[in-house]
Amino acid sequence: MTRPADVVIIGAGVTGASIAYQLGRRGVRRVLVVERRFVGAGATGKSSALIRMHYTNAPEARLAIASFPWFTQWADLVGGSCGYVRTGFVRLVTPDKIANLRANVAMLQRLGAKTRLITAAELGSSIPQSWPTISRSPLTSRSRGTRIRSEPPQHVPSPRDR
Q: Which residues of 122-150 are buried (b: 16+ CB within 10 A; e: fewer)?
């Protein structure tokens, strides 16, 4: 006997999986996720798993800022671990791009990103002495950056698993 689905989602990457999860949280019970090969087979699986707030356009920055709590509070919101590791993020620029960086950081701060400008000297004093010199750029942007460990999850909980 075939059972109809209320919603069919094409693609089991991060977007498709997230849509299915959110629909389940909102009470939709018959959600079918269709993937040609395997979960994360497309662009999601090729991601470097970098979570950052530093984007040059406001819509993408807003999305990153809004999604950040999902990673930091994964255990409470979803259950289990997503492999979140806080690492930091530094954007280096050449002197001719300083004005662009200043404008970008100001826009990100207005949107709520916790980012700030630092000098090359400040950057140099914040890294271990054993690291090689990485830049002579007069200004950088430093913000919360993270990565997700690359091991695939053994189990992706559904809202009903909670």
A: ebeeeeeeeeeeeeebebbbbbbbbbbee
Domains of the chain, residue spans: 1-47, 49-151+158-162
- 69-120 pLDDT, tens digit per residue, is 988 999 998 889 888 888 878 888 888 999 999 999 999 999 999 888 888 7
Q: Which pLDDT band, with edges at 50, 70 and 90, does 136 fall under?
A: very low
Residue 11 neighbours by CB under 8 Å, 6+ apart:
33, 34, 35, 42
User: Where would I find the beta strands (DSSP E) of 11-54?
Assistant: 31-34, 50-52
3-state secondary structure of 115: strand
Token reading at 23: 């629909």
8 A C-beta contact, residue 30 and residue 6: yes
CB 101 within 8 A of CB 91: yes
CB under 8 Å to 72, separation ≥6 — which residues?
84
Own/partner contacts of 124-131, CB < 8 Å, gap of 24 or more, are none
